[in-house]
């Protein structure tokens, strides 16, 4: 297992691989509607204190949150003096000059009016916590009890809210119920259904959309400017408009893993040898990223099965043999509902496995056998 040296920064749980952290990302692609909705709320003095940013992982939710927080903290203090040159002009975008003092402090994580709540690093175990803990959330309450800089705005980013454990979620709920004045919270949620209903009800939902192919290309270039811009045809299908997913698939061999998953059901019976190879590839700390990517690809496979039962195999296909396999396993809408249920079960199972550190190989094998049991019902 790799050990972080004393002078080495711990890994950031809200950063996708080698891509820049969202606080360092200058441009946001494909989310003009979400930006317009937020800007309209700000300029019309209807800014909600809690914003629930939803949508698939890797489409720009965190980038939006940092962009909006920078914008708010760089604006004049609410109710403050208009100053020598009168009231500031009405903003037309969330753009903030990268050289603005607030922008510079936020990049350095030294802005006193901003709080970032994310999975903490355990210095003893040299690992990131599997969830956002109640102790980390208590630090947010300490932040609220401090006086805001110059009596102005404060912002909070929770990345990601669906990683809160139960105690932490209840602690955050108190902050949402009685937020300090001029405080705006941005809750990033990849799976908002996993949040407490009371948390969802106290936020304004702001859905962000998967990126178009053109926006995806531009976002990939921003995240990895030196990378090859050509992408295998199947990668766009797997990425589904998510730059984060595209980066993970490229660096982790996602297309090969997905092809191996498909091959498990290329025949009427499960290929048990290949299933064992899939599980063994996820064993050990060195293969943690492969494990995470495999569980993500299983979720994609289940989602594509559910979609196939309703509207036919998704187009474009990830692999040449995918449409035939999906159509055989999901022949109608009844099967689609069954696959959708298994998809939700898989998500909950993976979250539980992460929280209690279950053996990755056992988790993968159990999941593949559950899929095979379902496949036998319909194939």
Automatic annotation (TrEMBL):
Keywords: Nucleotidyltransferase, Transferase
Keyword Endoplasmic reticulum set for record: no
Compositionally biased intervals (Acidic residues): 1-11
One GO CC annotation: DNA polymerase III complex
Gene Ontology MF: a single term: DNA-directed DNA polymerase activity
Residue ranges the record marks as coiled coil: none
Domain of life: Bacteria
Record's compositionally biased regions (Basic and acidic residues): 12-21
Official protein name in the record: DNA polymerase III subunit tau
């Amino acid at each position: 297992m790799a050990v972080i040296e004393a002078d080495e920064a711990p890994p950031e749980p809200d950063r996708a691989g080698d891509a820049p952290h969202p606080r360092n990302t200058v441009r946001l692609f494909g989310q003009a509607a979400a930006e317009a909705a937020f800007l309209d709320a700000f300029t019309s003095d209807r800014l909600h204190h809690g914003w629930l940013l939803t949508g698939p992982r890797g489409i720009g939710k965190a980038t939006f949150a940092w962009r909006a927080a920078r914008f708010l903290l760089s604006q004049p203090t609410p109710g403050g003096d208009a100053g020598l040159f009168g009231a500031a002009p009405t903003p037309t975008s969330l753009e903030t000059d990268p050289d603005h003092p607030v922008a510079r402090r936020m990049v350095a994580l030294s802005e006193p009016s901003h709080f970032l709540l994310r999975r903490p690093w355990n210095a003893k175990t040299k690992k990131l916590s599997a969830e956002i803990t109640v102790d980390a959330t208590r630090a947010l309450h300490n932040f609220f009890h401090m006086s805001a800089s110059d009596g102005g705005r404060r912002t909070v980013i929770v990345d990601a809210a669906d990683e809160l454990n139960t105690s932490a979620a209840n602690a955050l709920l108190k902050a949402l119920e009685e937020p300090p004045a001029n405080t705006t919270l941005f809750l990033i949620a990849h799976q908002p259904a996993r949040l407490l209903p009371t948390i969802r009800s106290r936020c304004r939902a702001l859905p962000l959309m998967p990126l178009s192919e053109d926006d995806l290309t531009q976002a990939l270039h921003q995240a990895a400017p030196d990378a090859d811009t050509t992408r295998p045809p199947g990668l766009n299908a797997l990425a589904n408009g998510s730059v984060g997913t595209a980066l993970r698939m490229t660096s982790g061999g996602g297309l090969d893993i997905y092809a191996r998953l498909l091959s498990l059901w290329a025949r009427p019976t499960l290929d048990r040898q290949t299933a064992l190879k899939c599980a063994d590839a996820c064993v050990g700390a060195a293969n943690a990223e492969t494990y995470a990517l495999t569980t993500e690809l299983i979720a994609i496979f289940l989602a594509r099965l559910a979609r196939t039962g309703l509207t036919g195999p998704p187009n474009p296909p990830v692999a040449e043999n995918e449409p035939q396999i999906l159509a055989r396993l999901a022949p109608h809408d009844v099967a689609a509902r069954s696959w959708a249920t298994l998809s939700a079960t898989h998500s909950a199972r993976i979250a539980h496995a992460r929280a209690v550190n279950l053996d990755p190989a056992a988790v993968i094998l159990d999941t593949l056998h559950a899929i095979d049991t379902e496949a036998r019902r319909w194939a």
